Amino acid sequence: MEKPQFTKSKALDKKAFKLIFDKFFNALCAFAYKYLNEVSAAEDLVQEAFVSFWEKGENFENESAIKAFLYTSVRNKCLNYLKHQTVKQKHEQNLIYELESDQFFTQHVIEEEVFNQLYQEISQLPKSAQQIMLLALKGLKNKEIAEQLDISENTVKTQKKIAYSKLKQKLSPPLNAILLTL
Amino acid sequence: MEQHFYIAELISKKIRNSISPEEETELQHWINASTENAELFQKIVGNEQLLSKLEIYQLFDQQKSWALMEKKLFKTKTVQLQTQKYWRYAAAILLPLFLAAGVMYFYLNSTEEDVLSRIDKVVKPGSQKATLILEDGTDIDLEGETAQENIKQRATEIINHNNVLTYTQDTSVADSNESTAEKIELVFNQLKTPVGGGYQLTLADGTEVWLNAASSLKYPIAFTDSTREVFLEGEGYFKVAHNGKPFIVNGNSLDIRVLGTTFNVSNYEAEPLATATLVEGRIQLSTSKEQKILQHNEHAVYTKQNTDLLVNQVNTNVYTSWVEGKIEFANEDLETVMRKLARWYNFEYSFENEQAKQFHFTGRINNTAQISSIFKMLEMTTKVKFELEEETIVIL
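Output (structure tokens, whole complex):
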């Protein structure tokens, strides 16, 4: 995949901003979701993080600096959000503890970073192929996938073939093995 | 944190199988550094975690969030609007050129066995065909040049010839009925066109009707009442013969009352809009809540959802050219375009690309053209791709 250029211009332009957004939005949401367990709250906080990133208007040295800013910003926003919840349950206290712990934080960042790279590959596939892949990875048989998506079994097979040929060059043997058994 | 991103990259490279020996050593070194690291590594590469994670990623609506943020951060400036306007003019000039180039490109490359020519093998243009349903429920298939039927019902003769069905009323009988003022019961026939079909009909009063695909017209075999009433579903083009009696086209939600005029009605159940287009004369439209008079060159659009009836001036050709064997689109969204095409070319389709439904398209083809010629134009002028999966056209 091509790497967006962040350092060329002093001011962050909209195009570069969109590239960054596209690349990290889902990963940051998943990261926030781990703590909030609410899809829309996660989306909102991540949007806020991007807004403050844009408004900061600063020139970041490289992608790592941008990622660090975004993950840290989302982490802080999650903490604020959880602390402001009126009913503080034990469960949330635990989450706050996890968020405040640097060790958990870095572990979760690493996880998200790895998955995001894989996700970027899969999201290059057509929507239908993605859907079929997800169900297949859940262990559903072709026939069950066809029923669930209301398409023919043959379509499932064709889509898988397309997905497989697109992904196989990019994934390592263990993942190839999953795909082959589809 | 940079170091953590580096570790993440190593793990990701490991999964993608693109890790170098040096990097592998570094990764091993990190894994061995602590049990936490080793556990984290195992957790990440484990399949189960991977799968649930991918599902979680699908939960979030990236496009919607971007749209919200874009609104907040980048308010449109007037300067931008102006440039957009110029672009629109430029597009208006350039688009036909691109279209022409596209069509030429298509013909020059038509020998290639590509996706579109595969589609042409499966999806064929429609043809003149219909089913005639008589009063007693008998079905008669009308198809092919040679299909010829001569039926006599009561005092009416029905002839099918050259893809035109003609009713001829024995005037002596009609006159005698009128003179004796004897009210005779109306006998109805129905002409139905399938998806991928069309037909032409001359009613007993001389009114000519062109029936588009997937449509049906119910009409009396002889007009013995004080009004001439027919029932239309789908699309029909009427040249109503003037004989003093009002002619009424009943539709699902839109009724039309005329004396002698030429007009088109499109009132498909599956469409959100019903339209009436007047070529000449005057017609009166009635909906459940209002009545409006349509003058010539006017076009009425009835929105089923809110029962609003709007009238505007149009170039009527766009709405009536189908009678001359054209399929025409005037700035119509791709969803409407596909519904129209599917009615004539008889195919199944599905939108993989939801955004594509909003693309607008203007263009015209002959209804005998290969479907690929229009798909090619659409691919050239909008950001869509057509693929064939089994027998279904997929819009990407």
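Confidence is low (pLDDT under 50) at residues 1-10, 172-182 of chain A.
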